[in-house]
Write the structure tokens for this entry.
Amino acid sequence: MVLLICVGTPLLGAFLLPALGHWSEKARRWGSLLMVLTALVCAVISTVDLLSGRTDAVKILLPLGLSMGFRMDALAAFMALTSCTVSTVIVIYSFGYMKEYAHLNEYYLMITFFIGAMMGLVMSTSLLEIYIFWEFSSFCCWRLIGFYRDPVSIRRADKAFMVTVFGALVMLVGFAGIYGATGTFDLDALRGSQIPGWTVGLMLVGILSKSATFPLHNWLPDAGVAPSPVTSLLHAAVLVKIGVFAYARLIVLTFSIPQIYTVVVPVIAAVSALISAGCALMATDIKRVVAYSTISQLAFILLGLSSGSRIGFAGGMLYILAHSIAKAGLFLCCGIVEHNLHTKDMNKMGGLARTMPKTAVAFALCALSVMGIPPFSGYFAKYLVISGEVDAGHPVIAAVFILGAVLTILYLVRLFAKVFLGPCRNPESHEGNNQMVASVLTLAVLSLLLGFLIFLPSGLITLAMEAM
Amino acid sequence: MNLVTVLLIIGLLMIFAGCWCLMRTYHLLKITIGIEVAMKAVTLFLVLAGRISGSLALSETFVITVMVAEAIVAVVGTGTAVGLFRKYGSMDVRNLKQLKG
Amino acid sequence: MTILSICAHGFVYCPILVVLIYNLFNHEFARKHFIWFAGAGATWQILTSAAGFFVLHQSGQNGYAFGALWDPGLPGSAYFELSGPRFLLLLIVGLVAFVSVLVAHHTVDFNRSSYTNLLMILVLGMNGMLLVTDLFSLYVFMEVTGLCCFIMIAMFRSRADLEGSFKYLILSELSSIFILTAVAFLMMKTGSLRYTDLAGLGSRISAGSGRLEDVLFYAALVLLISGFAIKTGVVPFHSWLPDAYQSADTAVSILLSGAVNKVAGVYGLIVVMELFGDVAPVGKSLAAVGIVSIIIGALLAVRQPHYKRVVAYSSVSQMGYILLALSTGTTLGLVAALAHIFSHTAFKSTLFTNAAALQEQAGTLELQDLGGLENQMPVTAFTSIIAFLSTAGIPPTAGFWSKILIILALWQAGSPVLAAVALIAGILSSAYLIRLQRTVFFGQTRPELAGVKEAHGSVLTAEILLTVITLGLGLLYPYILMLLHAGGIL
Amino acid sequence: MNTIIYISAGLMLIFGVYAVMEHSILRAAIGLALSSASLSVLLYVLGAHLAAVFELSVCSGLVTVIFIAGISLSHSPKMEIQKEYRDKERNRQLPLVLIGAGLLLVILALTLQLQTPQLGEVAADQDVRDVLWGNRQADIWGQIALILCGGVAVAVLFREERREKK
């Protein structure tokens, strides 16, 4: 029941928001926040249940192996908590950011629906269900990226939609292959089953397209035309994490796959990390830099999950959490800057630390976490991932990733220096409004605190590792 | 080469001529005539089938129904052709270029 | 008179009755109130097909045979028979007729009485096709259906209307010739054309027997398949379809895409599969035609300059999916094909109804003149998005489930490659529909379209009705699958 | 008996091809009528007496009347006729193609040596009227619909345009 509320409230309630919007602007905002909070509370309740040894689950039985349901296990709880927390902050932030635009009805509808889809996805117990929620999220990202409705946004929205839908369809072929081999879509029934190698390959295409990993990464930097809360949501809280979540859920936890993929996937991840880090060093659009950084960091996550060792897996999961919080913070800071200066070109910025000090501090804290500087949470995650890879016996790949980590430091320092340090070029700029600044500071503090309270999520991670 | 074979071949040739007319003629009414020519052969086939299988009465009822259909097709075809003539002042198929994509 | 017999006889009597009563009234009155007569006919059809199904299901019979004029007592007679899967198609006929009437209320102006008469005869023709138990009667009613369509397209008498109608007539008559020849060839072997006599004929024929009738049997199969494929409008027999759909008045396009090419074309192929499915090349050729038309249809749709042409080519592509499902010859395949027929009816009718709304409000359907209409026409935009998702097979719409069923059917029948290609081709469906979205609804409003208003009245009702069906089915499909499973069908 | 069949079948083919090839549309319609008449002789000889009468009256008579009505409603202007001569050129290939196809079919029939069925006896106990009214109710119902269709077609398609489309 808790699970149904958790998924149903944002998913179905989202359609009430346009009606609320007709009535009053405020009702729509708070309605949206309330729904996301409901999902968060339900996720917390269910997680508490889980930690005390009970598993919440609902299921309807259907013929032809099409059974569907929701179940909260450690991985689902971890993902649900992460994305709900970050989403809540983002929704609060968008109160301030999204005041003056048209289509706000659609905006809140899609944001809330998106979070509902994410909740559904992480708790789903069938391959088909994963596909359904997967497409929900593609649809939402199509509408959200095209939010401004100018031709460029529309084209990029279409691109993002086409790439992710293509990936999803290829993945569905993989699912159909699994169905053909086993006769069911049900994850419980499929646990531990041997599946043909090519289906794993097809699923990987879907995962790579969703989590924007090389060679299907192109749409993500382009999606930066969307409003900042949206990009933040896409990059940090929901969309790209769906891909890595699917990897963890399907390939790591459910199926036993051919050995070759424990090498192939890390290599893809390594290539992706290096290429995107290079791009980030070259880009001049602040959102593009952060977007490439996302691609690069996702490669780390994928590496951790695919390394095959338990330490790596734990590192990957921790990385999801750390990256979500820090990256959301980075994007929201970029949003404040962009909102103020009406440009995204970092050559036109400089010395913003003086006019918007709180944002600068928040940005610095989040950037440090992404770079992986101790004692931030990012450090522990990165350390675990790389040591997991060494454990699994691929020191070369681990070395490449250390190079990637160094590049991360380089481009983030470059970004920070160009935007916030140096002579002040934008004296008329000023701090964002309260909701926005409060959200970024919250995220910055969270990513610092997590470094000290690293034991908090470890309970869930250990539980998830036991299922491996 | 008995009677049945000869009639079949003649019928097939006639259908061929009708379809040729359908595909390669420029005149709208001629196209409709092409349909009718092919229908003649089909009528013959039906009666032939009735004779071969010994249920001639059944095939005769078929033929009668087909003829009604044929007449109505001629009406509709001619009507459309006349309508097109009123628009274009000619019966040439090559005028039909409204629909492209 | 039981309820069942009232329902059954209604399918053949009701349309004629409506025509007779309608023409009793004076012209002006009839013109003004046509919606009530045609609407009543369509509503009767919807209600009786639903009621008939439940009554028949309750009684536990397989089918209900009845004669049109008097008792079907005589041996060897051609009578009508109501049975399971036909109900769904009868329901589709009623639904599409209903939607078409709603749209016609706005789009059809000066020849409303002809429209009403022809609509009812068309419904009769399609009902006849679905109810008959004899291949020749199938041809007769197919001819009725076709002729009504030609007249309905041509009666608006613009150049494009007449042209589209004539092209349709040429190819359609070609298919009639094919089918009649096939009928004659089959009759040489059997002396009867009832389904019961023809079923299983394939197993009694051997290719190498050296008998003329056996050779002609295979020729007949080729002719039957190509004849019905022309009527369905699949590649390579599709050339009439976009022209006819584009030129016809939108109320007629809805009929054509929603019901006619399914009943006249796909249902014919269903019959062919039922009768001769045991001859292996039949299924294979259907699969080949299906896969080619999925891909070619979608590729052609991407480049079209006219809203209705895009939608028409999308029909070509979607018909391919249905043929692919049919080609398996399994029960699951048939269920999948029927499911996709139904969802296709819903979403394609939505798209055409949107076309009617655009035509009425914005005054054009050329894609280059449209843009950013979602602010002006929010409901139309929303319904078109749902139809788009359903066409591309994206959840939670009816199209998603029917496509999944098709894939499962193909996979179970042992052709995974076809299933994979069909799935990946879904990206092409998304491509042309996303282009449609971008050029028509999504985006900035063009200044000359700023004064456009939302559609109103019956067109809006039709849009909402169809969208509710698409979405509702999408959400209820698990339940339907459970019912089918409980009924022992799956 | 067989001679009449061969002759009338041959005539049917020849008139049919003439109807296709003749570029004067009036003569083509007459060619169709003659082809129809030959067919009706053929049908009569084959034993389908009622069908033969129908063929003569409906196809040879009514359909020709329809075509002539169509022709009289549309007189092509002189310059258009020139264009239509192209038809003649294109159709000139037809006899050759037909002879080719015919030869091919004959050779096929001779080489395949198929076992061809014989014409059966005309059963005496079957009456067309009984079969039509007793067994083919569905077809009769279809014919009613067809005739209604034809009525609407005449009413809708042939009338002069009084009101232009908006």
Q: What stands out?
A: The first helix of chain C runs from residue 3 to 22.
